[in-house]
Design goal:
- By secondary structure, the chain is mainly β.
- The chain contains one helix and ten strands.
- The chain is globular, with a radius of gyration of 18 Å.
- The two termini are 32 Å apart.
């Protein structure tokens, strides 16, 4: 579902009533969650979201999720395939997905499939050879 720039793709529930408002909801979750800061933050910086210092996530800039390996997985050294999905609001096609195994110091392009619809998930994967050690993808 894509109407007026809003998505209904996750946490879908049965509706018994639909109400349209002229202003953004001040509901706790809409006022303090599901928001993007108006200014850039430093990595790890604490931030308390309010309606005044952030905007709603109606227009999704970009999301990417690692589906394999799972968080905290213990992998054997050698060749590993990391895979996931990426998504945006459909306003522009994604051109690349980059993956880092060293906390963002170096990036490796992933292979990805461009879906037929601009509103669909892009599946991606990348192979790397891991030496014994601890990695953050």
């Amino acid at each position: 579902m894509r109407e007026l720039g809003l998505f209904g793709t996750m946490q879908v529930k049965w509706l018994s009533r639909l109400r349209f408002e002229t202003a953004e909801s001040a509901n706790f979750y809409h006022a303090t969650e599901y928001r993007v800061p108006l200014s850039l933050l430093k990595p790890g910086e604490k931030f308390r979201f309010t309606m005044e210092n952030s905007r709603p996530t109606w227009d999704i800039r970009l999301m990417s999720y690692i589906l394999y390996p799972e968080s905290g997985a213990k992998l054997k050294p050698g060749t590993v395939t990391v895979s996931g999905v990426a998504y945006n609001d459909g306003a522009a096609r994604l051109e690349s997905v980059l993956v880092s195994f060293d906390r963002g110091h170096n990036w490796q392009p992933a292979d990805f499939q461009t879906p037929d619809s601009p509103y669909a998930w892009y599946q991606w994967s990348v192979q790397t050879t891991l030496q014994p050690g601890v990695y953050e993808i």
